[in-house]
Amino acid sequence: MNETLKTILHRRSIRRFDEKQIEEDALQKILQAGLYAPSAGGRQGVIFAVCQTKEINEQLGKIKRANSSPRMATAVSYVSREQPSIADDPSLQNAFYDAPTVITLFAPKNFLFSPEDCAIAAENMMLAADSLGIGSCYIGQGWNAFADSYGQEILKKWGIPVDHYAVMQLLLGYSRGGDPHPTPKQRKEGRILRF
Question: Each residue of 114-128: pLDDT tens digit?
Answer without folding.
Answer: 999 999 999 999 999
